[in-house]
Amino acid sequence: MFRSRFLAAFVAGILVAACQTTEGVRTDNIPMYGQPDVVRSAAQRQADRDFIEEAVKGFASRREASSAWWRQGVRFVRKGNLDYAMRRHNQAWLLDPGNYQPYWGFGMVFLNQDKTAEAIPYLKRALSLVDEDKQKVHLLGDLGLTYATDASINRSAGNLARGSESFRSANNSFLEAVKLEPGYARTYRAWAWSLFEEGRYAEAWNKVKIGQKLKEGLIGVGFLYKLSRKMPEPN
Question: Domain 132-235, CATH 1.25.40.10 — does that match?
């Protein structure tokens, strides 16, 4: 059903895409079309209204339509098409700026570009808006993973203080996720990787064992091999 709704709004989407330039600079591939720093032209504002009017048809609310466009963005992230992903997340944001999902989407696009400094504020914004406990657990896991990636990048660049701070933030995010949902195995997989990167190998093994107990085969053999090279599996 969504496919037909999505196609019905495609023409309006083309109008939006055609107008996403300001003084020759593309704005559809940056979060929120660069707003508020980039001022929208009258033509762009009209294109936005046309898109919203068409996109909400068949949905119960703008929030529901926003979620549908966000899911399209997630699919593009998984396919590695980050340019299209950003476009869909921007459209999701346009449909409902109060929805946490587009900000989550912006963060994940940046994370997949290794732009962790840009990703973190959007993930934190999403966390401040999320109103679903299950999704909050997933979001906290992604935030923890982003902090851990940021820590590794900064440590490799010699910025040890920033690295240590980001590892602390990663651990706090994973801890909060576990408190909310102790039985979600993927949190432990991400936390194990973060602890490995931090050099806390015994604790990484602890998270591995919890995760494997919750879901057999969760932890890849490649990671287990790397971890065992640093520290043999404790009895």
Answer: yes
